[in-house]
Amino acid sequence: MKKFLDENFLLQGTTAQRLYHDFAKGMPIIDYHCHLPPDQIAGDINFKNLTQIWLYGDHYKWKAMRTNGVNESYCTGNQPDYDKFEQWAATVPYTLRNPLYHWTHLELQRYFNVTEVLSPSTARKIYDECTEKLQTPAYSVKSLIRSMNVKVICTTDDPIDDLAYHKKIKEDGFEVKVFPAFRPDKAMNVDNAVAFNQYVVRLEAAANVSINNFNDYIDALKSRHDFFATMGCSVSDHGLEHLYAEDYTEAEVKSIFLKIREGKNLDLDENLKIKSALLTLFAVWDWEKGWTQQYHLGALRNNNLRLLKELGADTGWDSIGDFSQAKSLAKFLGRLDEENKLAKTILYNLNPADNEIMATMVGNFNDGSIAGKIQFGSGWWFLDQKDGMIKQINALSNMGLLSRFVGMLTDSRSFLSYPRHEYFRRILCNLFGEEIDNGEIPNDIPWVGKIIQDISYNNAKKYFNW
Ligand SMILES: [Zn+2]
Fold it and tell me: Per residue in 255-302, pLDDT tens?
């Protein structure tokens, strides 16, 4: 029997172990999409205790705690930090086979050198030990990032953000590059006229213009896109149910914009037309600047309306949707490609049933200009676990070129999530190692090792060209 979470965790044979330890382990990390708060990096803060760095804002853990029968007051409520941790520690033994069990213990090991299993009997000791460490300079936010050998981080930022924290991070000379990413989801949120108009007012302030029509709106957003570029941004990101690729005319979109500005809600046809127009404009700007555009597709958000009203968004009421993806995706990418304005693109799907759709879709628009121009992105959110990663890797292997994959990203709000790259690399090495052992791949360790290093780091470095 193997020991739990030892140095050969997830690595089933000596070949896989060799691939991981000799090739993957030492590679740096490029975290090209995450949700780390730039203010906390700029402030290089120390978290007060293990609850604050680990449980605050973590809807994965809250979901598990609720499922385990824990009262909401210990998740998002006002219970004392240690009491919340105690409830989490009581939940952890029940998370067996959920990725949280692995993540939790990997994070305790890698950041805190704690090898005990978290449970009610170890909770006090682990909490005190980790909380004490968190007070020291070695556990400031920047130190935590450094300790994981991270080279580049891309945060997720709204066009109206002034990026003051990014400026400070750069001026302070942090050796890890922290770039913003342009995520205009709110600029496209025409589902709610009130919220949209509030956003327009904030955009007017950010861009220092007055917005009276669609052209003004576009000019304001374009000025923010330009500003983001001056701040080192070269990636955009969109969280969408599916791609919008309706046909529209300029006149239609102009009048739709005026309608929503009058506070009137749009009908479905209008809604889809203006979203399609905006999405296409953003894509063209990305192409003009040589950026990479990312699309996170397929989440069904805010499903528990009662608790959404009580607790707000991003508190754990989202799930996998079953939207139709292929046709609109093909139309959207095809239209850009036809005009020769298709930027480097990464597609992430949340529904695993869409894996093969994504893996084959990217092949339609790879044009030989660069390796892996259109990417099928890593397993994301609910798929960010062993089974989800293996399925994504297998679909990509079967229908594309895994060797040209830009690999893992954290997509996390937590400074303790970097071991997920290790998790991914171990799974990757195990897949290659097993197939070498079976004689399905030549026993050419230097070549396979190089491919693993490429997927772990080199491909992303080349692709994003930072
Ligand atoms: Zn994300």
Answer: 999 999 999 999 999 999 999 999 999 999 999 999 999 999 999 999
How far, in Å, from the CA of 34 to the mean position of ligand 1? 6
CB-CB neighbours of 314 under 10 Å: 14
> How far apart, in whole angstroms, are the C-alpha atoms of residue 103 and residue 32?
20
CA distance linking residue 12 with residue 14, whole number of Å: 7
| Long-range CB contacts for residues 126-131, cutoff 8 Å, separation at least 24 | 126/50, 126/89, 127/49, 127/50, 127/51, 127/82, 127/85, 127/89, 130/50, 131/48, 131/49, 131/50
Mean pLDDT across the chain:
97
**Residue 153 alpha carbon to ligand 1 centre in Å:** 13
Distance from the alpha carbon of residue 409 to the mean position of ligand 1, in angstroms: 9
Residue 279 near residue 25, CB atoms below 8 Å: no
Q: Looking at residue 310, what is its pLDDT?
A: 92
Tell how far the Cα of 412 is from the centroid of ligand 1, in angstroms: 7
CA of 413 to the centre of ligand 1 (A): 9
Residue pair 397/441 in contact (Cβ under 8 Å)? The answer is: no
Ligand 1 center–CA 411 separation, angstroms: 5
Closest CA to 217 of 307, 141, 278, 154: 278
Q: In the numeric block, which tokens belong to residue 134?
A: 């968190």
Spell out, as residue ranges, where the chain has pLDDT lower than 50.
none
Half-sphere exposure of 154 (CA within 13 A, CB side): 25
- Residue 94's contacts (CB-CB under 8 Å, 6 or more residues apart) are 64, 68
Find how far residue 450's CA is from the centre of its chain. Answer: 25
230/270 Cα distance (integer angstroms): 34
- Distance of CA 51 from the midpoint of ligand 1 (Å): 22
- Cβ–Cβ < 8 Å for 107, 88: no
CA distances from 2 to 5, 12, 97 (A): 9, 10, 16
CA of 292 to the centre of ligand 1 (A): 15
Surrounding ion ligand 1 within 5 Å at CB are: 411
Residue 218: predicted pLDDT: 98
Question: Kindly report the CA angle at 55 between 126 and 94, in degrees rounded to 5?
Answer: 70
SS (H, E, C) 89-142: HHHHHHHCCCHHHHHHHHHHHHHHCCCCCCCCCCHHHHHHHHHHHHCCHHHCHH
3-state helix, strand, coil in the chain (%, to 5): 55, 10, 35
CA proximity to 10, closest of 93, 94, 91, 106:
106
Q: Name the 3-class secondary structure at 28.
A: coil
Determine the pLDDT at residue 54.
97
